[in-house]
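Encode chain A's predicted structure.
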Amino acid sequence: MNHLHYIDPGTGSMLFTILISIVSSLMFFWKKLFIKLKFLMSGGRSEGEKNYLPYVIFSDSKRYWNVFRPICEEFEKRRIKVEYLTASPDDPALLMQFNYVHCQFIGENNRAYARLNLLNAGILLSTTPGLDVYQWKRSRNVAWYTHIFHAVDEGTGYRMFGMDYYDAILLTGAFQERYIRKLEELRGLPAKELPVTGSTYMDSLKEKLDAASEQKEQETLTVLLAPSWGESGILSRYGDKILRALSETGYQIVVRPHPQSLISEKEVMEPLQRAFPDGERFQWNYDNDNFEVLRRADVMITDFSGIIFDYALVFGKPIIYADTSFDSAPYDAAWIDEPMWRFEVLKDLGEPLQEEKIPQIKGLIDSLVKSGIKDDARDRVRGEAWQHIGESAALTVDYMVHKYEQLTAKGA
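Encoded structure for chain A:
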């Protein structure tokens, strides 16, 4: 649940991506030409006009259902029709029994983007970065593209140009605005609308935690290793070393790799999975919903993943963050001449782990669990990053409805 370990539509070889984009563009051109010719020959309305959708939500992965579910439920409560399009055939949304929310699987990867590129809609809401950069192009028949964050960080951790071509970005906290405005200034982009609507998935996590039954006391500590993916991630940098040190602590160890690691970093993951198989005190976790594993863990070790804020701000538990010498070159952060916000606040939320200290990690875990998290620092970061707690779904739908009314009044 973070920007840096996101399933980016532009992963893989740049040359291959450019080739795919050219082929896709040609395909879309001929398809649009066919539709126009069909329209002229029939004298009737085009397929796009007949299939106009006022509100659309697009999810490229089932794991973002925790972002979209509260929004869908709010649309349902208001009896407003919305189309939920997913690129995951096993998206939990497809099992929901809604009356006003229509959930549809539109294919994976390029098949999904081909559908989106020809979409005819008023407002489209998505967590997916890279709009109009790689395979996913802005449709000339969509009036307004709105991005929603799935992490409460500064927003510069997307692959380069990730948010540039959206019309609006829904902020979790007002602090994110200065980073987006800086990128717009540097790149000569028009100003986006930046309403502060909070975080739907953080609201849901809090609601779920408040309603959960009290946990049974565990015999030993549970340590969660939750790395990001990519060359700067823990498993890429320190995989064998840190897993061995954790295995020797005698604690329950849960490793929850980002799903993209299993796709893009097989050469890293497969040897580690063989060397450290599931056992009595060691477990690899791939659950779609991270709630139970976060609630169970007594301490979390991570790098620059957005899960930091889920764990610290919702569950109020201590964090150890690995110093992996983050390389910002592929990300929007490389354009901004100041430290990333997440690394600044990490100093207040947890304790650093240098590579040379990995063999002594048990002592660091014991010390941190005993001292606990700094309540004043956590409260300050929460107030900055996660505003409108409990109101995010309503504010998100408010924005979409109000914007749609504006657009239709102008004849957009």
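The domain at 207-385 is CATH 3.40.50.12580 (Rossmann fold).
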